[in-house]
Amino acid sequence: MTNNFEYGILNTEKTFTKYEVIGLARTYLNNRTTVADPLPANINKPTLGKKLRRNKTLIFMCLPAILFFIAFSYVPMPYSYIAFTKFNYIKGIFGSPFVGFKNFAFLFRSGQLLLLLRNTVLYNLAFILLGNFLQITFAILLNEVQSKAFKKTTQSMMFLPYFISPVLVSLLVYNMINYDYGFLSALIRSWGGTMPKLYSTASAWPFIIILVNLWQTTGYGTVIYFAAITSIDESMLEAARVDGANGFQRIRFILLPCLKPTVIILLLFAMGGIIRGNFGLFYNLVGNNSVLFNTTDIIETYVYRALMNNFNFSQGSAVGLFQSVVGFGIVMVANTVVRHIEPDYSLF
Amino acid sequence: MAKKEHVENFRHLKLDWSDRAIRGFTYVFVTLFAVACIIPFWLIISSSFSSESAIRRTGFALWPREFSLRSYQLILQSPDLLIGSYIVTILMTVIGTAVGLFVISMTGYALQRKDFFIRNKISFFIYFTSLFTAGLVPFYYVIVKIYGLKDNYLAVLLPLLMNPWLIILMKNFVKAIPHEITESGKIDGAGDFTIFYKLIMPSMTPALATIGLFIALGYWNEWYFSSLFLTTIVKYRPLQYHLYNIINTVASLKNSVASSNVVIEDLPTETLKMATAVLATGPIIFVYPFVQKYFVAGLTVGSVKG
Question: In whole angstroms, how large is the CA radius of gyration of chain B?
Answer without folding.
Answer: 25
